[in-house]
Amino acid sequence: MTTRMPPISVTSTPADDGLSWLLDEFVGRVIGVTAALLVSRDGLKMAAARLADDQADKAAAWVASLHSLARSAGAISGVTASGFRQAVIEDDGVLVFVVSAGYERHGGAGLVGSVLGILASPDADPGVIGHEMGLLVGSVADHLATRTRGGAHLGAGGGAR
Predict the structure, then answer these.
(1) pTM (two decimals)
(2) What residues does the Roadblock/LAMTOR2 domain cover (predicted)?
(3) How many domains does the chain have?
């Protein structure tokens, strides 16, 4: 179980401060979570917690790929609205959670959302982790949109790249 805490408000934190600190706090607070990663939908690492740089870069690519595959399930089944909420992968050694983050509030205007990936121990409580991920995304959604390729990235990651 995890201690109940209100959603974290970062409305006064400038976007170019990055969000790795927030992911670190999440990993430290939610029981069973071992690492966290925020990536653009095209696979660029925006922020990471408890992952070495090379691990985070590799994980960014597969988190974005998992997100893309999961979102396409709706199209295959004939659902017209994008109702993707979460993908969970269970392995003997790890649980992987992938959720959309931030793009729903930024329809159009050259902005797309990002993807939150969480790694957890195999005995972690998926319900608690999913709930906490929802609170995290909801509390910082406005900071999670990125510009489409060719434009400067917004949100986590330190300004224009």
Answers:
(1) 0.74
(2) 20-120
(3) 1
